[in-house]
Amino acid sequence: MILGVAMNIGIAGAGLMGRLLAWQLLRRGHRVTLFDRDTQDARASAARVAAAMIAPYSEVAGGERQVFDWGLSALTRWPELLAELKQDTGIDVYFQKRGSIVVAHARDRGNLEHFQSLLQHAVPEHQERVHKLSREKVSELEPELGTQFDGGLWLEDEGTLDNRELLSALSRAIRTLGGSLKGEWREGVVVASVSANRIDCGGEIFEFDVAIDARGFGAKPQLHDLRGVRGEVLWVHAPEVNLTRPVRLMHPRYQLYIAPKRDHVYVIGATQIESESLAPITVRSSLELQSALYSVHTGFAEATVLDAFANCRPGFMDNLPRIDCSNRTNGVPGLLRVNGLFRNGYLLSPFMLDMSLQCIAGHVHHPVVRELRLVESVNEQ
Ligand SMILES: Cc1cc2nc3c(=O)[nH]c(=O)nc-3n(C[C@H](O)[C@H](O)[C@H](O)COP(=O)(O)OP(=O)(O)OC[C@H]3O[C@@H](n4cnc5c(N)ncnc54)[C@H](O)[C@@H]3O)c2cc1C
Predict the structure, then answer these.
(1) How far, in Å, are 211, 231, 289, 337 from residue 18 at the CA level?
(2) What does 302-319 look like in DSSP terms, one character per residue?
(3) Which atom of ligand 1 sits closest to the CA of residue 269?
(4) For residues 166 and 365, what is the distance between their CA atoms, to the nearest angstrom?
(5) pLDDT in tens, 314-359
(6) For 60-112, how does the pLDDT look when each residue is reduced to its tens digit (9 = 90+)?
(7) Residue 231 CA: which ligand 1 atom is closest?
(8) pLDDT tens-place string over residues 230-245
(9) Under the phi-then-psi rule, with left for phi > 0, alpha for psi from -120 to 50, and beta for the rest, what region is 342?
(10) Which atom of ligand 1 sits closest to the CA of residue 313?
(11) Rounded CA gap, 235 and 136, in Å?
(12) Distance from the alpha carbon of residue 1 to the mean position of ligand 1, in angstroms
């Protein structure tokens, strides 16, 4: 096995990171085998449940500065990646970067001011991309919001994409490229463990030049410092609503977000719960989401609920993502664990993809990468 030569690579987990890695590795001429316990529509992954907002500013207010720094390039990297994906599949995945709008009802104006001061404190040198809006400016950007809110913020450098379209385009690209490169997609397979050069599917063991663990929260049995943070969302079809940008509503108990997709489809979410339960969405959350939604735009009253999802964001204790590389032979890592994308998979995955590809090609010195020496399990470190 020599660097630069086509390698045999196994990937456990075909969610967001697993699919992106498989696709790009196939494009580089490697042979890739993907394993997932789910089917190709990925309904059990955090990737499918997510609102897929690319929101460095909203996330850094009260969050981690590294997430902002590492994620900022996503708004230029996604269009490049999606152009390549279109070349490979003909699918034009919905993506827009028109910024997001943050609003609050008059009684909650203090929450909006608090959010703005957190943002100012977190990224003082980027304040020219944060715009305070009058009622007229809110209506100019989003005509259907103007009557409800007498002001707000416009975070110019934010965007969103359609994750359903992305996941299915990635799946098609992997199949297409895999067909000519003998890649395989072993769906419906539960991976018991991933270690150097091997993926163990509960008795059946597969050997690879590089084994990649991209199981998200599903890697917890091997990564004890990983936790799941539950999130609940509704996917709705609202023909009477014409919002073109992600909207966040500040509220004393939660922040509601509304992320538009194509054809009047919106993803609505709010709750972040320190719980690892994968149980379906509760009536209470669903009622809270729907009444907050109605308070933003009465047109949501006639919306139909397409899906109600709950899943866990995979987070480490410091809320930062991590790439663990170990067992290098001739410079190639036998094991790569890519995890901890937490609330920011769509913001961070282009960066995590590029760093992971660099790690496979050689040593990388960056705080997101841990180079570990010859270990059987990263967890034993
Ligand atoms: C409610 C909610 C809203 C979100 N909104 C946003 C947002 O707006 N913007 C943003 O940037 N991020 C958002 N995220 C976060 C984002 O979805 C995650 O960070 C991202 O999906 C993590 O990617 P991953 O590939 O590590 O894990 P996943 O996408 O969960 O993929 C893991 C895959 O591994 C498979 N798997 C797990 N265990 C096993 C096993 N033992 N054997 C075989 N297969 C296995 C799973 O089936 C799954 O397909 C949100 C997440 C949630 C839950």
Answers:
(1) 11, 21, 31, 11
(2) G-EEEEEEEEEEEEETTS
(3) 1
(4) 30
(5) 999 999 999 999 999 999 999 999 999 999 999 999 999 999 999 9
(6) 998 999 999 999 999 999 999 999 999 999 999 999 999 999 999 999 999 99
(7) 1
(8) 999 999 999 999 999 9
(9) left
(10) 53
(11) 29
(12) 31
Q: In the block, which residue shows the tokens 């939604």?
A: 293
CA 275 to chain centre: 19
Measured in Å, residue 92 CA sits from the centre of ligand 1 at 22
Q: Which two tokens stand for residue 124?
A: 């003082």
Lining ligand 1 with CB less than 6 A are 12-18, 35-38, 42, 44-47, 49-53, 190-191, 214-216, 218, 231, 233, 269, 311, 313-314, 339, 341-347
- What pLDDT digit, counting tens, does each position of 114-159 carry? 999 999 999 999 999 999 999 999 999 999 997 789 899 999 999 9
0.85 exceeded by pTM:
yes
**How many A from CA of 72 to the centre of ligand 1?**
20
Classify residue 101 by its DSSP letter: E
The answer to whether the CB of 223 falls within 8 A of the CB of 261 is no
CA of 304 to the centre of ligand 1 (A): 25
Angle (deg, nearest 10), helices 74-89 and 163-181 = 50
